[in-house]
Amino acid sequence: NAGVTQTPKFQVLKTGQSMTLQCAQDMNHNSMYWYRQDPGMGLRLIYYSASEGTTDKGEVPNGYNVSRLNKREFSLRLESAAPSQTSVYFCASSEARQGEYGYTFGSGTRLTVV
Amino acid sequence: GIQVEQSPPDLILQEGANSTLRCNFSDSVNNLQWFHQNPWGQLINLFYIPSGTKQNGRLSATTVATERYSLLYISSSQTTDSGVYFCAVEPDTDKLIFGTGTRLQVFP
Q1: Cα–Cα distance between B87 and B77 in angstroms, integer?
Q2: In this complex, do A105 and B41 lie within 8 Å of one another by their Cβ atoms?
Q3: Pick from B94, B106, B91: nearest CA to B36
Q4: pLDDT in tens, chain A (114 residues)
Q5: Which residues of chain A does B94 touch, with a Cβ-Cβ cutoff of 8 Å?
Q6: Domain spanning B4-103: CATH 2.60.40.10
Q7: E strands of A31-99, at which residues?
Q8: Distance from C-alpha of B53 to C-alpha of B30, rounded to nearest angstrom
Q9: Distance CA A108, CA A90 (A)
């Protein structure tokens, strides 16, 4: 099925450990995003990539790095995890077609840092 | 940065009732989207509506860009409408900023 695929779905890390969240889309979209959602809150933009080879900071980039490996894949890396990074992480992609912008979100990665 | 406020924060309805959700934003925007997050966490894009009115089945949305607000109407609500509704705006290209959402619970 066409869409955005995130892995893993769940992860528990110890403080100081590193990990990479993977995201891939098969809709040939140019733009991709990483968001985090904390309990009872909206989504906050971490990083985005308007096209292959470009990345830019969002609202809350500290503690994260990203790689736009190719047009399909956009990964998020936590170099040294902290409890404040416990959250649900969503990857998304978007494209403008016929003047309309459509966003597709992955199903999320629930990350706990202990 | 831009502020996005949604009201009400919580809404409880009985099946069949109508409702209006509001989104206010503090600056001009290039883009405005409405999303539904279901109880399992999946986010679905409902409308792209930087201005004007659109309808999709029992849902419709109106954005008055000059007055910096948007409304989402849900008619004849069903239990499957439950979840959180988010408004999101794009003040700069590719930076979609979300509001804090309206949590809707529809009971049979």
Answers
A1: 19
A2: no
A3: B106
A4: 579 999 999 999 999 999 999 999 999 999 999 999 998 788 999 999 999 989 999 999 999 999 998 999 999 999 999 999 999 999 999 987 777 778 999 999 999 999
A5: 31, 33, 48, 50, 56
A6: yes
A7: 31-37, 43-49, 56-57, 64-68, 74-78, 87-97
A8: 16
A9: 5
